[in-house]
Design a protein that fits this description.
Largest sheet: 2 strands, parallel
Structural class: mainly alpha
Radius of gyration: 18 Å
Helix content: 55-70%
Low-confidence stretches: none
Strand order of the largest sheet: 1-2
Amino acid sequence: MVRKQITLVELYNILYDHLDSTGWWPARTDWQIVWGAVLIQNTNWKNVDYALAALQQATDFLPANIRQLSNSELEQIIHSAGFYVRKAQTIKNLCHYFDTYHDDLAQLRTLPASRIRQELLALSGIGRETADTIMLYVLSKDTFIVDAYARRLFQRLEVKLPKTYDGAQKLIMPELAPLTLRGFQELHACIVLTGQTIKTEQDWQNSFLAPYQLRLARKGE
């Protein structure tokens, strides 16, 4: 079968037309997204949901309340998410970071994306994927999250991304210039939903994406 070549923006439109991404990222507050972005590392959403429910009950997700907890208390609260010692420290590191901005997310949103990303990555426990999740969904900065779902989708669409996170992101971002912030958020949500529903090669062959091949202006690896 000859596959139709499409751009990344065309892929976004195809995904959006076929998937219901409404309400994703799942959270009731911006702070819940921040802590969820940490807790989801190396685990699944079922475990994270238990941890978030306990964290909400104990702190209402507010960083000022989390700062009042000892590390051992926080570890017990988020225990179900796994790696709770490291994650508790990462959450505390973020709380101290937000304290320098008086927990004012509106103030943070006025800063350049490059500065925010640099500051987040300087915190122990915050990697590129977590930093970009916070930037995209909480701090309203256009960015593309190069997670495992994205790499798998690009591979199936016959695009081999650079091995490094920053290299892949640098290749992808120019392709998405027409998108608004909402578009960046929806694209990531759709990519995650695709990965969660199209898991096997047979799933892929039977999916709405099977007829397509992704074409980037610049080549990857």
